[in-house]
Amino acid sequence: MELIALRTFQAVVEEGGILAASRKLNTVQSNVTSRIRRLEQELGAELFFRKGRGLELAPSGRVLLDYARRMLQLERETSAAVRQAGEAVGELRIGTMETFAAVHLPNALKAVRAAHPRVELRIFTDTTAALMSGVLEHRLDCAFVAGPVVHPGLAFDELLVEELVQVHARGADPVRQPLILFREGCAYRARALAWQRAIGHAQADAMEFGTLDGILGCVAVGLGWTLMPRRVVEQSPHAAELAIGTVPDDIGRVPTGMIRLQGGPTLAAVRTLAEAVASTVRT
């Protein structure tokens, strides 16, 4: 029984169908279908009932799902344990929000390099939702995300509380401007939309950008307003053109920290990284 077949089976169940699973696994539908068929032939059991275009998990499939999850979790733990044994010459895959990377990560990465000079550091920026998936799917060893994070497969270590502030161009009236946001999956996005509704902005529409510089640059020239961590705004090259306004704590205070797989071994370099971030925040 191949692990890729079990991953495919789990994806079909969790995503609700062949097409969605193929997108998640970045493969074509025919590959997903053939893997499921081979798995059924190998086990001698039907895993799904076909109902029109949909699929329903068969009793044999429900049994397999429990074992598949445990086997895939064991595979992830095995991989992490082997990498931990040889981590002095391995790699550390770190996920981070772009805003966190801009302010908190550089000094912490220097500390990791000093303590683990032969560990290769690989940094990936994305939204909180995508980073959570990356850790759960074992593509990332850890990630810095906006919380709180409550997930049975993830451990969340809070390292700081980020303060979000309303940002707009000096002299502009944000009430009459559209909101400028990161793309779907950003933890700040929902808070910004909630604040927009709470204060009754005349402009209910929003623009999306994929980069921090893109958002603050557009805000600085008066194209819109946004919510952003105070420290990011104050350190931005556009700071002189930006005005900052406070928001209520339920919107503005965001617990932020590191996520990693729940129950798995923690790499020494990951511990060093978390300690370095916490030390940087304290200073």
From TrEMBL:
Keywords for this protein: DNA-binding, Transcription, Transcription regulation
SUPFAM superfamilies: Periplasmic binding protein-like II, Winged helix' DNA-binding domain
PROSITE patterns, sorted: HTH_LYSR
Keyword DNA-binding: yes
GO function terms (MF aspect): DNA-binding transcription factor activity; transcription cis-regulatory region binding
InterPro entries: LysR_HTH_N, LysR_subst-bd, WH-like_DNA-bd_sf, WH_DNA-bd_sf
All copies of domain HTH lysR-type, residue ranges: 1-58
Coiled coil, from the record: none
Domain of life per record: Bacteria
PANTHER family on file: HTH-TYPE TRANSCRIPTIONAL REGULATOR, HTH-TYPE TRANSCRIPTIONAL REGULATOR GLTR
Family statement: Belongs to the LysR transcriptional regulatory family.
Name of the protein in question: LysR family transcriptional regulator
